[in-house]
Design brief:
- With about 300 residues, the chain is of the alpha+beta class.
- It is built from six helices and 14 strands.
- The strands form three sheets. Strands 2, 3, 4, 5, 11 and 12 form a six-stranded antiparallel sheet that branches. The chain has a five-stranded antiparallel sheet with strand order 1-14-13-6-7, covered by helices on one side. Strands 8-9-10 form a three-stranded antiparallel sheet.
C-alpha cells in the first residue's frame, strides 16, 4: 500500500508559537499511514501579567499529545487500540502539565488540546477523534459542493454529545452558555455552539471550552473527556484515488476552498498543487493552520 501526502502548517504569527502540531508516519513494509493533527487551546500570561496571543506552553502541550498518539500507535500497531492510546497519552500529559497550571506565581494558566488521528490501511480509513479537527473527503461531479465532512465536531451542536452531557447538565454543576461578545468576539458566526461552563465551589460560573472532548481542560472534567469517537470508512466505498484532508479548525475554510477549486480534478491534481493553493491564502488566516492532504495511490 502507498499513500501520498502534503502538509501545510503555519502559525498565526510569523515566528510565533504554533498551537497546532502534526505528527506523521509514512507507509512502509506492512506499516499503515498515520496522521495526527492536534490543535491546542488555553491561555498563558507573561511575567508582566499580559495575556499571550499564542502560548508556548499550549504549543508544547499540543506537541506532546501528537507525538504521544503517534508513538503509542506505533507501539500497539492496531487502529483498534487508539482509545487505549488516547487514555495513555491523557495520563502522561496530565502528570506533566496539570501541576504547572496550578503553580504559576499567581498568574492563571490553562491548557487543552483537541486531536484527530487517521490510520489508513489497505481497506479502510480509521478515525479517532476528540474535538473539532476535521476529516474531509473530496467530491466531484454532480454534487452541490466539492467536499464532504467525514467527522463530526464535538460541541453543543452535536446531538450525540448533548446526550452524553445530559447527566452533567441535569446535575446543575455544568451549564451551556453562549461565549461572551464585546471586544472578545465582536461578531459570533451563525450557529456558534454554546460553551460548557462549570459552577465552582464558590458558586461562580467558570467559562469553559467550546469542544466537549479534549485532552487537558481538567477544570471541566469529567464532562469534557479525552475518550475519542472512533469511526471507519471503507476505501472501496469512498472511491479510487479520493483526496482527503485532516485539518485543525483554522484550516477548515482553506480545505473547503481547495476542494471547491479543484472539484473536477481532485482525483488527478497533484497534492503539491493543492497545498500551494492553501499556502497562497495563509495571509488571510485568523488562527494557526494545519492541513494534511492525503490520497491512497496503491491500495
Amino acid at each position: 500500500m502507498s499513500v501520498e501526502y502534503a502538509l501545510v502548517s503555519a502559525p498565526l504569527q510569523r515566528g510565533g508559537p504554533n498551537e497546532d502540531y502534526v505528527a506523521l508516519c509514512e507507509t512502509g513494509d506492512q506499516q499503515p499511514f498515520l496522521a495526527v493533527v492536534v490543535d491546542g487551546h488555553g491561555w498563558e500570561f507573561d511575567e508582566r501579567g499580559r495575556r499571550l496571543v499564542k502560548s508556548p506552553t499550549v504549543a508544547a502541550f499540543a506537541r506532546d499529545v501528537a507525538l504521544g498518539v503517534r508513538d503509542g500507535f506505533l507501539q500497539h500497531g492496531d487502529a483498534g487500540a487508539l482509545p487505549q492510546v488516547f487514555d495513555e497519552v491523557a495520563r502522561r500529559v496530565e502528570a506533566a502539565y496539570r501541576p504547572r497550571t496550578q503553580s504559576r506565581d499567581g498568574l492563571p494558566m490553562d491548557v487543552g488540546a483537541v486531536a484527530s488521528c487517521v490510520v489508513v490501511t489497505r481497506t479502510h480509513v480509521h478515525l479517532a477523534q476528540t474535538g473539532d479537527c476535521r476529516l474531509y473527503g473530496a467530491l466531484s461531479g454532480g454534487w452541490t459542493v466539492g467536499y464532504r465532512r467525514l467527522s463530526r465536531d464535538h460541541n453543543a451542536n452535536n446531538q450525540s454529545e448533548l446526550r452524553r452531557l445530559r447527566p452533567f447538565l441535569v446535575s446543575g454543576e455544568f451549564r451551556l452558555l453562549q461565549p461572551p461578545g464585546g471586544n472578545v468576539l465582536p461578531r459570533l458566526p451563525r450557529g456558534t455552539p454554546d460553551r460548557l461552563h462549570r459552577r465552582d465551589v464558590a458558586g461562580q460560573v467558570v467559562a469553559g471550552p467550546e469542544p466537549t472532548r479534549a485532552f487537558g481542560d481538567w477544570t471541566f472534567c469529567p464532562a469534557v473527556t479525552h475518550v475519542p469517537e472512533c469511526r471507519s470508512f471503507e476505501l472501496e466505498a469512498l472511491g479510487d484515488g479520493e483526496l482527503f484532508a485532516l485539518c485543525s479548525d483554522g484550516g477548515n475554510r482553506f480545505v473547503e476552498a481547495a476542494f471547491e477549486r479543484f472539484r473536477d480534478v481532485t482525483r488527478h491534481v497533484g497534492l503539491s498543487t493543492v497545498a500551494d493553493f492553501v499556502r497562497a491564502g495563509l495571509h488571510k488566516a485568523h488562527d494557526d493552520v494545519s492541513v494534511v492532504f492525503f490520497r491512497v495511490v496503491d491500495p
